[in-house]
Amino acid sequence: MAMNRRDFLKVGAGASGSLMLSLSLPGCSGLPTGYEQETGEWRPDAWLEITRDDRIYFTLARVEMGQGTYTGLTTLIAEELEVAPGAIEPRFAPVADEYKNPLYKLQLTGGSTSLATSWEPLRTAGAEAREMLIRAAAGVWRVDAKECSASEGRVIHPNGIDSMRYGQLVELASKEILRGDVALKPAAEWKYIGKQNRRLDARAKSTGKAVYGIDVSLPDMVYAVVTRSPRYGGKVQSFNGDEVRAMAGVLEVMEIDRGVAIVADKYWRARKAQDALKVQWNFSEAIDLSTPEVFETYRKAADEDAGESERSEGDTESVLANADKVVEAEYSQPYLAHATLEPMNATAWYRNDHMEIWAPTQAPDLGRIAVARVTDLAPNEVTINTTFLGGGFGRRLTQDYIEEAAAVAFRMDRPVKVIWSREEDARHDLYRPAMLHRMKAGLNKGELSGWDHQIVGPQILNWYVRNAGPAQFPWTPKFLYNTLGKVGVWAEGIATPKDISAIEGAIEYPYQVANIDIRHTHIDPGVPITWWRSVGYSHNGFAVETFMDELAHEAGQDPYQFRRRLLANEPRHREVLDRAARLGGWDTPVPEGRARGIALMRSFGTYVAQVVEAGLEEGSIRVYKVAAAVDCGQVVNPAIVVDQIEGGILFGLTAALYGEITLEQGEVQQSNFHDYPLLRQYERPEVEVEIVDSTETPTGVGEPGVPPVIPALGNALFALTGKRQRTLPLKADA
């Protein structure tokens, strides 16, 4: 190699520290920058670090809750950096503006957006890092950088023999200045993107080394449980604190905003003390609804208010008035819990006028606001340490469990872990909203001529903006937090994003019909709600695709062909529909006692069609097979795509067969898996997934597997029994 003594010493100096590479990501300007001569570290933004001993760290701005970001996003960096994904160690990001989701302006993981929003920025990041390292080596060798290459963590000399490790080049690379864009690798040269890669978190999770929130253990840690009002909105009136405080191991009994907290030296002692706690509640402001009243309220609202127009084309009213046949139907779906495997929990430690939180949260910046709400601290006096999540499904976007831990820890001199029981997790969840749909369509000579869809129910933003508003402006004084939330609701669709949680999956109606009228009647009974896996697509998918099946039946046409003809202008919809029909054997005879149903839905930019084969056995619904075709654009990890579509199908089948949270005078009736069951292993159907080979920009797969399977199952049961079910969950004896 052409390396003189001076150049060699520069490389040697680089080996004594590490390189923090500036990655040209949107908004990456707020973290400390500059090269530290003493340590040999360059810290412009803390996204990617290469150390003197060739360790590579990637700061992951999205959480890992089983959906594969830990592997998928790391793969994007690895591909361009020319190292194997397994050579990179991901680390969960701290709260910083640099890590906000660009679609929501919040640091959250949801909406199946992680890969879509990271696809180009992270590849660019890896490419720029690679280029800086190559230029550094070329300078040492005094050769043209264009003649050098990178491979497996080394820069290769043009002679193809000599090379230098990335770790040797960190100081020199930190001095490189890139001008203009760096070319990304063409698809033909990809080694990892689109390949069958193992999950980077598999070993840690399989061996118990992965730290979930519930695993956090700190020195001198104590445990807290919280008794909450059985009815939402109830307030503590009195409780027998002195009696409980005298029990073995109990350290404190205190009232907090959400109820009464018991702190003990052991978790089980806190639970035993909770059994002895007697709370008198003030229910003057609590909800008092029962489930039938919720839907009575919805129907009354629908009768009195036609709703706000969300999509209007043609003259639907006139077309329906003159149609050969008008088909009408009403669909309803219940409240649904999230039932994450890991119940809600958080650990908080208040010391030196600072609060540190360890929690499985989907939104760490909202976690800081949650702490600020219940303490005297400002958001910048709160540190959030994100752990692995034992399931999220949208539940961990809301930070009530962090509020509880912070409220208790603020009054203790030791770290406090709050753990919810399974019963508390079910009864104090924030639910997928119950919804009502009124559908009407016109048929002329068997052809669809008009489509009318009235959606009735609440919007999630009204509940979520409470902490989301302040999180966008963390410098705001706390006395304005609630005002910010109200402004966020008032300005929805103007100064803040439009809340489409109630209408998504309906307004994107893909079928070709000239006359469409879609409206939303907003009514909120006061039952706490939040995001749930696939959000509005879950309930609108059931209504839209079941009604499409009803129309096919009324028109005397095959449900698959009826849809297909109406998708002439939607090639990606049509492609997945055709693939699912073929994969599911739509045109082949079905075994005796079984039937097939079909449905499709584009959600979060991903197209999914499914064929479900089902029957009845011993008075129960049995799903035998689900065939799914998915078009999610360019695939990064095919195995994870299959895993997520399969997981979405099982999640959706659980909702279709069992999911139902009911209220009686304001109290949730379900409490555990015996009365809010999940799909059991022996019930798992055969699932076959086919992925469309695509070069389109990648989209998410964590949620799109859910919406089609619910109507596809209902449609299969109709084909089997001739009875149409318009209310979930589906029943064997309907």
TrEMBL record:
InterPro entries: Ald_Oxase/Xan_DH_a/b (IPR000674), AldOxase/xan_DH_MoCoBD1 (IPR008274), AldOxase/xan_DH_MoCoBD2 (IPR046867), AldOxase/xan_DH_Mopterin-bd_sf (IPR037165), N-heterocyclic_Hydroxylase (IPR052516), OxRdtase_Mopterin-bd_su_IorB (IPR012368), TAT_signal (IPR006311). Gene3D superfamilies: Aldehyde oxidase/xanthine dehydrogenase, a/b hammerhead, Aldehyde oxidase/xanthine dehydrogenase, molybdopterin binding domain. Residues 207-285 form the Aldehyde oxidase/xanthine dehydrogenase a/b hammerhead domain. Transmembrane segments: none annotated. One of its GO terms (molecular function) is oxidoreductase activity. It comes from the Bacteria. This is Isoquinoline 1-oxidoreductase, beta subunit. It comes from Marinobacter pelagius. The lineage of its organism: Bacteria, Pseudomonadati, Pseudomonadota, Gammaproteobacteria, Pseudomonadales.
